[in-house]
Amino acid sequence: MATETATRTPGPTRQLRVRSALRLRQVAAGWHRPALSAVIALGAADLVLLALGRLDLALYTSGGGLCALYAHGLPYAARARTLGWVVLSMTASVAVALTTAASTDSTVVRVAVAALLAAVHKMLCDAIRIGPPANLIPTFIAASCVFVPQRLADVPAHLALTLAAGAFAWLVCMAPALLRPQGPQRHAVARALEAAAGQGAPAARAATAAAAWRTVLLVPARSTAAVADRGRLELLLIRAGSGTAEPGQLRLWAGALRSRGPLPDLSPTGAETAELADLDAVPGSGAGAGTGAGVERSSGGGHLHRRAPLTPGTDGRVPLLRTLRPGSPLLTIGARVALGCALAGWASMELGVGRPYWAVVTAASVFQANTVLSWNRALNRVLGNVIGLVLFAVLLPLTGLGAAVLVLAALACQFATEATISRGYWLASVFVTPMSLLMVQFAQAQPAGELIADRALDTVVGAAVGLACCFLITDRHVSDRAERALAAVAATRAEAARLLDAPARQVDRYELGWARDRLTNALVELREAADTAGGEWRQRTLPEDRISAAEQRSHPVLAELSRRLDPALRGLPTAA
Length: 576
What we know:
The protein is mostly helical. It has 3 domains: 32-178 and 326-472, no CATH class; 183-218 and 221-305, no CATH class; 478-569, Glutathione S-transferase Yfyf (Class Pi), Chain A, domain 2. 66% of the residues lie in helices and 1% in strands. It contains 21 helices and 2 strands. Strands 1-2 form a two-stranded antiparallel sheet. Strand 1 (296-297) and strand 2 (304-305) form a beta hairpin. Helix 4 (107-128) packs antiparallel against helix 13 and helix 19 (478-501) packs antiparallel against helix 20 (509-534). The longest helix is centred in the N-terminal third of the chain and has 28 residues, at 76-103.
């Protein structure tokens, strides 16, 4: 390891800013799908319980119903598998929580179990990269169940409610397949085309295109027609990534994808034909490829390729132990979550709060990849909860209008949460707060003043303790990760240069393409490691000059690899 990295910095290289942490983003396309699915799944269960006069059981059905928030970006075959695992995992978490609640009256033990469950949820969701809402939903449900009055004899029946509600949520999320079986992949590619036609940030366009590639790769090719349709979608993504199509044409294709008409049928150029054939020849990229096939942005040619190695995916095909090996940053994050949530819950308990699980959930929501991101989340959480408490006070008169109005108000808050979560976490928290307080009223009417005071105190305690743990428990390995990434970039660049120097007849397109994507992924890993380390507290000074030099030296190599692979680029001047 280089000696110039041995000094310590007093804090993150990125400052802890307030304005940027609270800045609102554009609303995400397709937000209404998880919103409607969750409202239908939760609403159906709540209405049944309301008709039976057992709204006190809504916590158990909510665990299953909230599974409807997941996997909406996946094609239906992958969605079916992923949602199945989500429902089973949620049921398992509820089982541990309810068994704990029935086995002990010790608040200390209950907080400890809730904290451990929160840590497991965080590590597993990060490992499989399941995406929003990630670990927050199972942590909220499990922490609530740990503190609900429970008898061991009732646990099986309550678990059955969670499983039944989860099965219904699965049906709700799969039902659109009857009308538009190609819907997820068509919408994903349409978003990528619209992003390529727009003037947004390059990183945002690349992320949208990468998500589209990932979705398309998960489409099973079980028939000749399916293979042809997937090829058309791949060709559209290649055309959008190449930059050869006019923005107006890209928007027309996107409109066609969103309609119920046939897929746009393009005639591939010679370069595109070679690209498609070359991609299909790579192991793991054909039918049945595992979820999460890597798709990264090439800095040299500007294309998005799908030939990257497999990364952990949401269907569990890549072993979890690979991402939880010794030295993994996920272990540090897990330690932060376990300790932070436990301390937050115990502090809340000592302050006399009757619902310390709110402090546990708040602390769990704070922990992100590094200190800067955790600061942003804590600030968002506190602001959103404070405004949300004001909204709950405004909604209080509704609690006197009957249980049906109470259920409808909670469902409206759930829908508003999903409508605003892509704009900003603090804005969504404004609606999450009254929703959770209204759900507390399902079982039994609670004093509003006590609820508001407990929630406010738990929010402050959870955020403060969570942030303190982020500053005290730093990931000392993130700087090492940057060093390893630097070495990997140097090695892959040297291998690529060797291929470029070899006689053309001794190197085939597969080797060149594989070298290009290995170097692309090494550069992506380097940038991610540098960004994570740059936002972490008390790290060795990053070798920014070496990182910048490694990126600059690699870009011409990537450009030359793209020139060799794509005949359309061979007439362009070589990058300096």
